[in-house]
Amino acid sequence: MKAKYLKKHGFGSIFYWLIAVLLVFLFLYPIYFVVVSSFKDNNEIWYTMFSLPEEVEWLNYQDAIFNVGILRSVLNSFLLSAGATLVIVIVGTMGAYPISRHIIRGAKQLKLYYLIGLMVPAYGMLIPMVKLFTQLGLRDKYWPMILLYAGINFPISMYLIIGYLDSVSREIDEAALIDGCTVPQTLFRVIFPLCGPGISTAGILTFLNVYNELVFANTLLQRKSMMTISVTLLGLKGERFTSWGVMFAAIVLSILPILIVYLLMQEKIEAGVTNGAVKG
Amino acid sequence: MALRIDKTDRIKAWFLSLPALLLYSAVLIYPIIQVFRMSFYSWNGIPASPMRFVGLLNYKAFLSDARFLIALKNVGIFILSGFLVIFPVSLFMATVIQKNSPLKRVFKTCYFIPQVISRTAIALMWYFVLYPDGGPVANLCELLGLTNVNVNFLGRPETAIYAIVLINAWTYAGYNMLIFSAGLTSIPQELNEAALIDGANGRQTFFRITLPLLRNSFNIFALNCIIGSITTFEMVFVTTNGGPGYASEVFGTLLYKNAFTYNNYGYSNAVGAFLIFSSFIMSVLLTKLFEKTKD
Fold this sequence. Notes:
Largest sheet of chain A: none
Strand content of chain A: under 5%
CATH superfamily of the largest domain in chain A: MetI-like
Number of helices of chain B: 13
Shape of chain A: globular
Radius of gyration of chain A: 24 Å
Structural class of chain B: mainly alpha
Order of helices and strands of chain B: HEEHHHHHHHHHHHH
Shape of chain B: globular
Largest interface: A-B, 100 and 101 residues
Distance between the termini of chain B: 27 Å
CATH class of chain B: Mainly Alpha
Helix content of chain B: over 70%
Strand order of the largest sheet of chain B: 1-2
Structural class of chain A: mainly alpha
Number of helices of chain A: 15
Number of strands of chain B: 2
Radius of gyration of chain B: 24 Å
CATH topology of the largest domain in chain A: MetI-like fold
Number of domains of chain A: 2
Oligomer: heterodimer
Order of helices and strands of chain A: HHHHHHHHHHHHHHH
């Protein structure tokens, strides 16, 4: 059997799959290390590579939850992501529809105007944004952050939703209009339900981006109860630890929810990221 | 092509556009204009204290700063690592997940996982994996007998940026894998079969037929890689914050530190304006260039 396989596929093939498996190992190892270390006490973490904890140390998780408050940060990240996604889905679709159907003057120019945002890094405007938030007293509040994140993710979402709307036949709109629907009714009752795939791509990307965002959160959220996972984790890095395990437990707790979401809807998320990437 | 609608519907259509227009203009365009305006002023970040007009002084300070050249060099290393490491690795992984092996799903999931983990968490994970006092990599070096290697990869000016670009490669390989995988899917199967019938072996088919047809995927990769490298920030910020010294500085860390560490907000805005301007110009130029080579 083995010999036959070798004859047919050659050593090249074995080498190929060896690298493929090695890469799997490379992608999983840091996660493995963090998970295993989160169950260890200080003496066991360093100077090992694969060893499992001798005794499972749940204290790390207790500390991460009650002292670090990581669950609060996870909740904040979720709230901001969900809020921004909701805003993007509603505002984005409303804005994309008239452009896709050319029912407003300057639809083309408006689309170009929106696409400028695709080509600039959002954090370039960090300083004016911090100034604005400070002057208007918007720091440490959910809604301003949600609108900020929706705005940052607006161009890519717009691009994706317009792209999808363009592929939905106009005859459907025409039929609805002839039947006496107004434009908003046509959009919300007829077109919106047909745009699931396009809108969910935009939504997934927005959700992932916001959940994992660091720069704006780190400068605009200072109250502990408002911090997102990235801010809390970064704050932990600067601290001197009596127990390293807490740090690892906090990392595990912050990536676990999104990993579960990913494993539950793999295909959708991968498709979303692909569509978002292939925008060129 | 446009839908025929009457006047009241036209007005309603404008109302539909309004929230989007307002959101985008207020959150992105207005602050971007502000960045350019504020880059001509000196400001210490205290809202009550006035901004002082200084003309091009911030740009002069930024462009003549030794750290500007370091950042430029490091961005170059980021781009180079993209083409030398991320490109071949992600293309390889794309071929793996295209094969009809029983473990296809497992491979794809494992390769893709970094995409859903926050950049901060990734940077921290690697910070600990590379921890010089007993971290796994240091441990591995010791096991392999590399006792004369200084294992403080992130903490030494000579190696810090290389450690970071490798972490960056780990982070983005799965993302680019999907781009190449989409490209591979769009290549008609008959082409490969025809080549095989004509006597080409697997390797020849890949390099002579498949690779040239991945031109568009490569263009997308290249655009993302170059723009992403110019604007890279989080990975450096969390692992080294531009250090040790200024060794791993990139434009993002210059922007951040000059504002929040040195209270030199004018300088930061000059960096911000530079970032916005250069990634905009590069996007337009590269898109134009790639359009010409598109097949």
